[in-house]
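Reminder to self: tokens first, then the designed residues, so the page reads top to bottom the way the pipeline ran.
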């Protein structure tokens, strides 16, 4: 008896891509946007991010250097001169500087279109993270993604390539000219401001010291470049060497357990990993640099860093590395160049080639880059220290904990269930900060300031009511001084369930086997919180720049304190920017940097969902037409 069409539809419903039944609990198709459209979106952004200019305005008063966390020794503007940054020159400056009706901050942030470049949303978020001097990925996230297992090296390669691509882009001659032009434009604005300040000081007769803001700007951008270059390259180098060392240990174990004659395939497997990652590191060696040639005030000196300063363009640096390789002797490699298979079948020869390559490339790296500078804490942590000290010195509250306001919005959990939930949430928070320099100094002060929605009269899961409450609360004396004030967190039914009923337990683990469509689930399906964005956006702007965004964003709990907070508090990104990376996720959760393999798996879920819902709709329509389902 032939199967009925209903049976065929049911089969397609439950067998689509052989994905698990848990897929039915995924959200419906995206509303108001198309995933492919989001992927193709590009925006014009300033080539020097606005967050850098905000930090510059802090720097000329506080003098904090991003690479070291120490203070500049150059003269700074005084506290009573800080408000002049945002006052029109016409209200405070003397002639000939009083003719301008705009202020310094306005002129710095509203730069000419010449200094804007087109950039994709995903690339923008990664560039912002690197420019800010954050590690590309924290240690906890690395482990959640199983990237600490060398056998996942192909996926490590994908992550590394995305990071490297940012520096290759910044090394493009056109981008370099734009960065140089933007820097010099800022220098000219600062020169006008410093001359107005110095003239005012002379007139008032209270301060004889003169400020040189142009040189402070050069010092600051040099420190910023040193931070992004050194921190990223060090992270890059360490992760690759850890992976290679782990793979080498595995190979040695294979030789011990199976003998030299049976270890050829192990050598091939390790060799592929070593070759690809070593080449990637060599690319990083000459790409992760930032030139200062042509920057106002810069003069090359023999004492300059090799990675920030005067240097050849990127293609010539590649040739430099090649020439260094050519000038060295490679006896182990040269003896095996005509007998690769024989070398791989001999553990002694194979190890000799590997070790020779590691040692020689470390020598080349040192010649090319010099010794890496010792970095201090990440700059956003320096800012926490600086703001905390200033607050305490000026009579601020002793409670200087930093973090977010968080609302318990769901009314259904019992006290015992809330206790269990908070234990899981704070266990995620406890993982924060690995590989983040300086995090241990502020770790004990990180926290959420909880608001009980039910006791505060906020209806169950009512985010809009929570928003209204927060807009009042953030200006009240009860608000902690170091809390982030533009956005807040909520725990509604959905986010509560993400911890108490983890989803989805049965999705295939990352990495997917070659040639299969699975869901990269390692670390991507876990407990999340919701970030509520209080910024007002015009609907047509959101439709163009962040389609589908509804002023809220799901974020993994493990990313709240060492990724979300620094990106927001540094004024680098807004939640709507992170939405552009979250919308591809099957649960539309921000999980950090995603690779092509992850997105391929996620795409499979979206496609399967369309098949399932389409089949279900057809089934219901046929049953209704045949009278099996009666309209109510």
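Designed residues (632 positions):
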């Amino acid at each position: 008896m032939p199967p009925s069409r209903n049976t065929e539809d049911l089969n397609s419903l439950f067998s689509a891509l052989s994905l698990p039944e848990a897929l039915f609990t995924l959200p419906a198709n995206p509303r108001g946007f198309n995933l492919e459209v989001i992927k193709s979106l590009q925006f014009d952004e300033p080539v020097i991010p606005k967050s850098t200019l905000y930090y510059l305005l802090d720097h000329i008063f506080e003098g904090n250097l991003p690479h070291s966390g120490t203070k500049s020794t150059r003269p700074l503007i005084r506290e009573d001169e800080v408000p002049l940054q945002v006052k029109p020159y016409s209200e405070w400056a003397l002639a000939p500087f009083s003719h301008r009706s705009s202020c310094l901050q306005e002129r710095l942030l509203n730069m000419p279109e010449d200094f804007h470049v087109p950039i994709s949303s995903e690339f923008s978020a990664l560039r912002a993270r690197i420019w800010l001097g954050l590690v590309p990925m924290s240690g906890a996230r690395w482990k959640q993604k199983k990237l600490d297992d060398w056998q996942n090296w192909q996926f490590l390669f994908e992550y590394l390539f995305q990071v490297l691509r940012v520096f290759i882009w910044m090394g493009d001659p056109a981008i370099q000219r734009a960065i140089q032009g933007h820097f010099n434009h800022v220098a000219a604005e600062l020169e006008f401001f410093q001359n107005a300040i110095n003239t005012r000081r002379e007139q008032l007769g209270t301060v004889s010291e003169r400020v040189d803001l142009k040189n402070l700007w050069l010092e600051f951008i040099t420190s910023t470049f040193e931070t992004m270059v050194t921190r990223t390259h060090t992270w890059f180098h360490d992760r690759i060497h850890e992976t290679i060392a782990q793979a080498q240990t595995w190979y040695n174990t294979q030789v011990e357990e199976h003998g030299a004659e049976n270890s050829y395939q192990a050598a091939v497997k390790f060799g592929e990993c070593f070759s690809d990652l070593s080449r990637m590191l060599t690319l990083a060696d000459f790409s992760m640099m930032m030139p200062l040639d042509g920057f106002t005030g810069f003069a090359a000196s023999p004492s300059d860093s090799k990675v920030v300063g005067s240097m050849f363009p990127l293609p010539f640096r590649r040739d430099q590395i090649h020439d260094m390789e050519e000038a060295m002797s490679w006896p182990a490699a040269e003896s095996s160049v005509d007998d690769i298979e024989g070398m791989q079948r001999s553990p002694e020869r194979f190890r000799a080639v590997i070790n020779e390559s590691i040692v020689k490339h470390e020598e080349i790296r040192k010649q090319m880059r010099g010794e890496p500078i010792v970095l201090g804490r990440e700059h956003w942590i320096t800012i926490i220290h600086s703001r905390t000290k200033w607050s305490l010195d000026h009579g601020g509250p002793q409670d200087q904990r930093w973090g977010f306001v968080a609302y318990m919005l769901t009314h259904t959990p019992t006290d015992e269930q809330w206790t269990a939930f908070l234990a899981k949430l704070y266990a995620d928070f406890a993982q924060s900060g690995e590989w983040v320099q300086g995090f241990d100094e502020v770790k004990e002060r990180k926290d959420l300031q909880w608001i009980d929605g039910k006791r505060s009269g906020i209806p169950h899961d009512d985010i809009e009511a929570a928003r209204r409450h927060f807009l009042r609360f953030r200006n009240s004396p009860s608000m902690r001084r170091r809390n982030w004030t533009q956005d807040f967190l909520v725990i509604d039914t959905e986010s509560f369930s993400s911890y108490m009923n983890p989803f989805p337990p049965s999705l295939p683990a990352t990495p997917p086997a070659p040639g299969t469509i699975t869901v990269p689930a390692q670390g991507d399906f876990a407990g999340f919180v919701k970030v509520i964005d209080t910024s007002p956006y015009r609907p047509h702007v959101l439709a163009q720049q962040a389609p589908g965004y509804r002023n809220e964003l799901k974020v993994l709990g493990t990313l709240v304190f060492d990724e979300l907070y620094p990106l927001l508090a540094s004024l680098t990104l807004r939640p709507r920017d992170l939405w552009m990376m979250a919308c591809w996720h099957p649960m539309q959760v921000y999980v950090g940097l995603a690779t092509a393999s992850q997105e391929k798996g996620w795409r499979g879920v979206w496609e399967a969902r369309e098949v399932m819902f389409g089949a279900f709709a057809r089934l219901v329509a046929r049953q209704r037409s045949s009278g099996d389902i009666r309209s109510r």
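Residues 1-26, 505-520 have pLDDT under 50 and may be disordered.
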